[in-house]
């Protein structure tokens, strides 16, 4: 009798211990970040958003606007930090060196597409997954309001008559103004006197002071100064007119040979390391797609003259690779590339 009771008591003790262990495992599973779908919870802490350029620029403004909306949906804040330097390579490498867990995001423009041919960095978009490309910016051929150039025809006639004499303000190889100047030079077989500046701000200052003859600046900056009666926009670097400047022709209307490069322009996107788990990529894609519908964010894009895109994944990769093809081979043809695009397996757009 004693032995029976002992065995029975032992049985109940083992059963209680099993239930306790099972409960502990369930609690542990829940606390480890498992969501309702069985996937690990994400995000679990504040997300660091890196803008590899200075504060106040187009990339910075777009990043902060969409991050403000996206963080509300994610349930964690997105702390935007500027890490400028070396054409964006400093910030890009910073994100690359972080864990691929989705808690470090890169808010970048188009610059990494040419890091390879310019030998600026070993890191480029190849190492990142395009979560969301927000939009594509436009550029404008701009002169001082008092300039003798009233149209693109006036400018091109003078450039052809005076090779390497017309002063074109640029930001150096890979920059917006340099790339568009290379397009014009290649398509029209002309040569400008390239005058380098540290950024768009100094270029506009030089343009307003008549220290240079012409330059290519972002459309939003051109519109801002055109409305103030300070500059004249000769053409928009696009394959169609834009509603913001209805009387200004598209560059392809003035220079048809430029069609092979269009559409082209600066673009803005958010990226995560390529090795990030699929559930992280999917969560980010869905979040930023929803955030892009925000009315205030869309108003900002319009104010900056940015064409909304809202693409991700394979579609986004196809887009940036096409842009890379145009830019990389332009630099090669202009003699500015340090490594041939062919060596980097970058095909030439036909």
From TrEMBL:
Family, as annotated: Belongs to the UPF0065 (bug) family.
Signal peptide range: 1-29
Descriptive protein name: Tripartite tricarboxylate transporter substrate binding protein
Gene3D superfamilies, alphabetized: Bordetella uptake gene, domain 1, Periplasmic binding protein-like II
InterPro entries: BUG, Bug_dom1
Cross-referenced Pfam families: TctC (PF03401)
Keywords, comma-separated and alphabetical: Signal
């Amino acid at each position: 009798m004693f032995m029976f009771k002992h065995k029975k008591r032992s049985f109940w003790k083992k059963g209680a211990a099993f239930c306790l262990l099972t409960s502990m495992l369930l609690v542990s599973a829940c606390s480890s970040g498992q969501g309702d779908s069985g996937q690990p919870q994400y995000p679990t802490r504040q997300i660091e958003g890196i803008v590899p350029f200075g504060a106040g620029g187009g990339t910075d403004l777009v990043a902060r606007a969409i991050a403000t909306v996206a963080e509300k949906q994610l349930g964690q804040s997105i702390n935007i930090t500027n890490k400028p330097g070396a054409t964006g390579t400093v910030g890009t490498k910073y994100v690359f060196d972080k864990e691929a867990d989705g808690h470090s995001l890169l808010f970048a423009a188009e610059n990494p597409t040419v890091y390879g041919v310019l030998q600026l960095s070993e890191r480029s978009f190849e190492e990142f997954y395009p979560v969301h490309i927000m939009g594509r910016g436009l550029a404008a051929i701009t002169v001082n309001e008092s300039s003798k150039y009233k149209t693109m025809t006036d400018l091109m006639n003078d450039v052809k008559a005076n090779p390497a004499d017309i002063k074109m303000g640029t930001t150096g190889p890979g920059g917006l103004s340099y790339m568009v100047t290379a397009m014009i030079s290649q398509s029209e077989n002309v040569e400008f006197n390239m005058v380098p500046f540290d950024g768009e701000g100094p270029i506009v200052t030089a343009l307003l002071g008549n220290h240079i003859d012409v330059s290519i600046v972002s459309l939003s900056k051109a519109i801002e100064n055109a409305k103030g009666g300070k500059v004249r926009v000769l053409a928009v670097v696009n394959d169609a007119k834009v509603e913001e400047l209805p009387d200004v022709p598209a560059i392809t209307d003035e220079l048809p040979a430029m069609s092979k490069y269009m559409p082209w322009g600066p673009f803005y996107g958010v990226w995560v390391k390529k090795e990030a788990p699929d559930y992280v990529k999917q969560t980010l894609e869905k979040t930023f797609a929803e955030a892009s519908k925000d009315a205030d964010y869309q108003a900002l894009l319009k104010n900056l003259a940015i064409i909304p895109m809202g693409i991700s994944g394979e579609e986004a990769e196809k887009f940036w690779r096409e842009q890379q093809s145009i830019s990389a081979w332009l630099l090669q043809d202009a003699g500015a590339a340090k490594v041939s695009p062919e060596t980097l397996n970058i095909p030439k757009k036909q």
